[in-house]
Structures are given as C-alpha cells and as structure tokens.
Amino acid sequence: MDGSKSDVEPPGRGPTSPPAWAATLRRWTDYLTVDVGGGPRPWTFAAVINFQKAGTFPFLGMLMAWYGQTSTASWIYLAMHGSYGLVWLMKDLAFPDPAWRRRITILGGLNVFFGLLAWYWAFGWLLISGTSRPVYPLPEPAWFCLGISLCLIGSAIMTAADAQKFFVLRERKGLITDGMFRYVRHPNYLGEMMIYGSFALMVWHWLPFVVLACVWSLVFATNMAMKEARLSRHPGWAGYRRRTWWLLPPIV
Length: 252
Description:
By secondary structure, the chain is mainly α. The chain has one domain: Up-down Bundle (Four Helix Bundle (Hemerythrin (Met), subunit A)), CATH 1.20.120. Helix content is 66%, strand content 2%. Strands 1-2 form a two-stranded antiparallel ribbon. Helix 1 (20-35) packs across helix 7, helix 2 runs parallel beside helix 4 (106-128) and helix 4 packs across helix 7. The longest helix is centred in the middle third of the chain and has 32 residues, at 140-171. The two termini are 20 Å apart.
C-alpha cells in the first residue's frame, strides 16, 4: 500500500459480502471436491493437481507414439503444455500455495481429476489423434508464434504473481498493490487464462473453448469474487479497487 489518502477506507466500513452467485457456487464446488462421499481424506488438492501436471508431458508423448504423430503442431503442443506442467511443479516446490494443501475425500479427488483436470488432457488428444484437423485463421508459422507467445507470457505472469504473493504475505499480511498487482487485481488468473487459451488456439476445436468457458465462468470467476470479498476487509481496498482492473481494461 502506498499510504495515500485515496487508499484509506471510510471509518466504520466493514468488509463486503461475496455475491450470492459466487457463495452458492463455492458451496457446491467445495462439496463436490472436498467433502463428497465423506470418509478418509488421503490426499490434498496439490497432490491431485501435481499428478496431472507431472503426467502431462509423458501422456502427450505416449499419445504421439501411439498415433505415430510427427506433425509440427503436435510437437509444439507437446512443448507448450508439457513444459507448462513442469513450470507448475517447480512453482509448487519453490513457493507452494497454502490453499492447495487442503485435504479432500477420495471421491473429491476423483472429481477434481476426472471432472476437471482430465479434460485438459483431452485438448492434446484432439490434436494428436487427428480428431481435430485445424485450419488456422493465419498461416501456420504466424499462428504458432501467437500460441507460443501467449503461453510464455502467461507462464511468466502467473509465476511472477504467485511468487510475489507468497513472499510478500510471508512477511506481512494485507493488500498487495504493487508489482504484478499494480494494475490488475488477479494477475495469476490472467496468466492461467493466457496459457490455456494458447492451448485452445493450437488445437482449434470447439471442445477446448467450451471447457475453458465453463472453468473460467464457474471456477475462476467464483474464486476471484470470493477473494475480493476477503480483501475488502483490509484498509486501502476501496482506493486500490478504483484504480485497478479485475483482469483487463474492459473488465473492472
């Protein structure tokens, strides 16, 4: 916080409540991924997510071997999606997110993997199996350049934002209003959206866009709305919210 007068909350103003739609969706997603089925909680969110991230490179490689696929698009997709999984693992080892350490039930873990994460593997299968035979709007070299650039920039934004959040909050609590959070309130989600958007562009099939629309509207939007409700209890929130964007300039 910069301590300017515009960042000071009006006296007596308390935190805002999350939107009703976000609170409802959070209750449902918590039940389906954390509590469903009851019983023991043998794993964490991080364990399930890291299993999928670590398996992406070998999974896509095996698909290429199985289908005898050697196209340039498939190799580029393997590099993009497979390497992103490794970036995620390194990030989780260096500065883990405490939210992913929550323990979940057996059925909850299966729901996380098969109800969400496995769909990301389907992107690569569509391309490598030949189910999607993309005809890109631009010449292939230009389209590949666009996809790779989005993936790289998105990975940098996500990693830098998560690192800043981890190390700053380890030293002090409160709003983070500089660095990656200076203009955008949710840069880590923006980076993730750029990464998975690049995968959808490479596959160029309707299914990845439907999957991403569902994830971004039901999961990402809910998480961001709930986060903003939590942040609203901190001094300086009103001024920070006024001068920043939710994700992009048109989305405030």
